[in-house]
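Below: protein 1.
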Amino acid sequence: MQRSTFRPLSIAEIAERASRGTQLFDLAVREFLDSWQTLSRDQRADALAEKPVPVGPVQDAYLAAVAEHLASIDRIDAPDWTEAADRFLRKPFFAGGLESLKAILIVESPSAFRRRLIFISADGLSRPRRAIVKEDSVSVDPANRTTVS
């Protein structure tokens, strides 16, 4: 599998990369979420608009949930494709796979995921953002105070 050098800039691009096998689905989603904050409001709407190619039942429902959730947060209309029947699961899917986490995931899952029977943690879509600060011409990672070259 090739490593992508560019982050996917749309939900459709996540699906395209996963279906072609050029990037793992989970990695493509994480990279898309990393780039989301850099997009303007119009770019965000565009990033959600195009209907993604089918990847698999869980992935298809997951992408619809991500699109609906992000649209809701940004007060953008969710695209129509997110309401298609094939964007909903018939059986529950629990992220992480641990039986002991199911109750927590049911409670914490954002509504766009719950209604598709996908259960993730409350911070399942959050991405850490580390600021790199300059100290005496040397970049330092404030999370662990190590020098970054």
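Below: protein 2.
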Amino acid sequence: MGGDMAGAGWPTGAGWTWGAVALLLWQALVGVTIWLVLRAASRRSRDPGPRP
């Protein structure tokens, strides 16, 4: 029974691990994207364009 429970608990543990890894990767991707967009926007607003 102990081995049965361990076998049944393994997929859920792996699922939790992969879910956490995917969530961390997604948050990192979103954070980097937002940072790049904000950096580009601030640089664009700081640069005096060809406006008179």
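The two ends are 80 Å apart (CA to CA).
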